[in-house]
What does this fold into?
Amino acid sequence: MFDPSGENPFDLLDQWLNDAAGSEINDPNAVALASVAEDGFPSVRMVLMKGRDDEAVHFYTNFTSRKAGELDATRKAAMCFHWKSLRRQIRLVGAIERVDDVTADDYYNSRPYGSRIGAWASDQSSPLDSRATLAGKVEEFSRTYPENPPRPPYWGGYRLVPHEMEFWIDGESRLHDRFRFTKSVENGWSAARLYP
It folds into this structure.
């Protein structure tokens, strides 16, 4: 029986990500990220978790994108990892803040050259008249930065700092195992088993 009481939920997240790396077809770090627009409607999309620290998970994007606008406006978000191969999921709910420039530079510089050029070429979430226009911008920035493109000033990362993390394992007859960790300033993380 699964019982993570007393554990650090980030250590459990690491363990499940490691398990998923051995069983998922691709992108075991893919996570659904939910934000809320000005009109109150939720908005969700897949992003890739690209690291963490002791209190947050990190992901990266163009700051001119729709998601960045929503995250900067509300400073709140939710995430859901789902690994079909493991029949597990993790939900996170918390505050959003931008990563510092050093962290963003380090991650940006670890990316393949084409992805770094793509960050310069894409005006993310804006209307695009044709793929040819995008290809032209890729060529233009490849000429400008033939070897080591710097991080664009409009591209960087976010930290989701959860105050809630829920771990779910599929169970027979829909009798799933669910634990919700909640964090308080006074007592740190505590876990409670939930009905399925």
Summary: Residues 131-144 form the longest helix (14 residues). Residues 121 and 133 are 10 Å apart (CA to CA).
